[in-house]
Structures are given as structure tokens and as C-alpha cells.
Design goal:
The chain is an alpha/beta fold and 272 residues long. It has a single domain, classed as NAD(P)-binding Rossmann-like Domain (Rossmann fold). Helices cover 48% and strands 15% of the residues. The chain has a seven-stranded parallel β-sheet, sandwiched between helices. α1 packs parallel to α2 and α7 crosses α8. It is globular. 43% of the residues are buried.
Length: 272
């Protein structure tokens, strides 16, 4: 990424205390942007702030839960109070789950929708008026699970699919304001040690480390997000498998379903 290409811009990244969010923040900082970090764990958030400050000193961290409207408003207010503008909002925060629908505690759906859907809507609503002023970028980080429903991921798929509906609506609503709306479908990505997902019973459980062929790095995801912003694209689909899935689902959905059924054992393994 060319240094200074985003000089003078202010970027807010939700869920940036670790993982993909932190990687996006580091890439934005390297491109010259002022960065606003967000997360609920103050310790991890401070670690991220220090990491970003090592790249670009124009960074603040706002510890809050954006699935709560008042706290999302706080994030936007503190950004404006400190930097005076917003050019980029990356709605990255999210939580995955595992478990077949018949086994799910109903609270799993509520938690997943709060973490993936409401946590994207809540900061977007107050940020739009500032993005209009800068003709800025509003980016939603989705997943290949947002392209079609997958076994063991019903709540997560439904929440991620909702992001496309929101992105499509806002893209039309703000067509005259000049806001760029981006939707990035992220594929199977490496995860940090200790990363958790929500189990069928509603309790948190640790994910196994993701390594090997077909696993994308967090930095590669971050670079793709920055390219989406710079090129003002609507949809970016990551990984060859993801792009094939996107193409096939739109044209041959029943074939995709048959392929998934034939490989159902792989999905069952992910729920172990």
C-alpha cells in the first residue's frame, strides 16, 4: 500500500482490538490515515493502540460496545471531538457461532444478531451525516457465510446476509451524497490464539487455530479492504473459492447445495 495515500483521512474501525480489525487499522495507519480503534476489552484495545501508534501516531481508542446504540453514538462523538471528521467507517465487529438449528439455545440468535447486525447499524446511523460531508466510505465486513446458508451456521449466515440488504439500501439512499458503500466477503482466515465462537448452548468456546492451504492471512484481508476503499468498489469477494462460490450461488444454487451435502462431514468437523 502506497504510503500517504490516505493522508488527512479519518478512519473508524469497529472490533479493532484484535484480528482482522486490528490488521485493517494497521494498514490504514500505514496509508497515512488517522485511526479510531474500538473494542470492549480495554487491555487488548490498548495493545492495539500501541501497535498502531508504532506505525502512525494519529490514533485514539474508544472502549465501548457498539451493539448498544448509546455506546455506538459515543464512538462517533469521540471521533468528531478528537479529529473533527469521519472519512471511513469500517463495520468489522462480529461474532460467529456453531451448532445446528435444532440444538440452538434461542439466545444464540439474539447474541449473533446483536454482534453482527446491530453492531453494524448502530455506528452507521450517526456516522452517515459526517460521511456525507467528506463523501467518505462506509464498509461492511461480511463473510462467505453471507452468500448462502451453511449447516451449523444458521444464525451467523442470517446476520451476515442482512449486511448485504443494508449495504444495498444505503447505496441507493445515499447515491446523491457521494458516499461509497463497500461490502467485503471474507473467506477462511487465520485466527489469533484464544479466539472464541458461540456454541449451540450459548456459551463461548475456543476455536482451533486455522492454518494451511486455503487459509488467508489477516493482512491480506486488510489490504483487500483498503483497495475496496481506494477504488470505491461495491462488492469485493476474497479467495478463489469464495469467488467461485459467489458465482455459482447466483447461477446454480441447487448445484451448490448438492456440493455442500456431499461435503457435509467437513462442516460437522468444524462444530467439534
Amino acid at each position: 500500500m502506497r504510503a500517504g495515500v490516505l493522508e488527512g483521512r479519518v478512519a473508524v474501525i469497529t472490533g479493532s482490538s484484535r484480528g482482522i480489525g486490528r490488521a485493517i487499522a494497521l494498514e490504514l495507519a500505514a496509508a497515512g490515515a488517522s485511526v479510531v480503534l474500538n473494542g470492549r476489552d480495554s487491555g487488548r484495545l490498548e495493545e492495539s493502540r500501541q501497535a498502531v501508534a508504532g506505525v502512525n501516531g494519529k490514533v485514539i481508542a474508544v472502549c465501548c460496545n457498539v451493539s448498544v446504540p448509546e455506546e455506538a453514538q459515543k464512538l462517533i462523538d469521540e471521533t468528531i471531538n478528537h479529529f473533527g471528521r469521519i472519512d471511513i467507517l469500517v463495520n468489522n465487529v462480529g461474532l460467529s457461532m456453531r451448532g445446528r438449528l435444532a440444538d440452538l439455545n434461542p439466545e444464540v440468535f439474539r447474541t449473533i444478531c446483536e454482534s453482527n447486525l446491530l453492531a453494524a447499524v448502530n455506528p452507521t446511523v450517526p456516522a452517515i451525516k459526517y460521511l456525507r460531508e467528506t463523501r467518505g466510505s462506509l464498509v461492511f465486513i461480511s463473510s462467505l457465510a453471507g452468500i448462502r446458508g451453511l449447516p451449523g451456521l444458521s444464525a451467523y449466515c442470517s446476520a451476515k446476509m442482512s449486511l448485504r440488504a443494508i449495504a444495498e439500501s444505503v447505496r441507493i439512499e445515499e447515491r446523491e451524497s457521494g458516499i461509497h458503500v463497500g461490502l467485503v466477503y471474507v473467506g477462511y482466515t487465520e485466527n489469533e490464539p484464544g479466539k472464541e465462537t458461540l456454541g449451540a448452548d450459548g456459551t463461548m468456546r475456543r476455536l482451533r487455530p486455522r492454518t494451511g492451504r486455503g487459509v488467508q492471512t489477516m493482512r491480506s484481508v486488510a489490504v483487500a479492504v483498503i483497495k475496496n476503499i481506494l477504488r470505491r468498489r461495491f462488492i469485493t469477494v476474497l479467495t478463489p473459492v469464495g469467488r467461485l462460490n459467489y458465482f455459482m450461488q447466483a447461477r446454480f444454487p441447487m448445484l451448490v447445495e448438492r456440493i455442500i451435502i456431499r461435503n457435509i462431514a467437513r462442516f460437522d468437523e468444524q462444530m467439534d
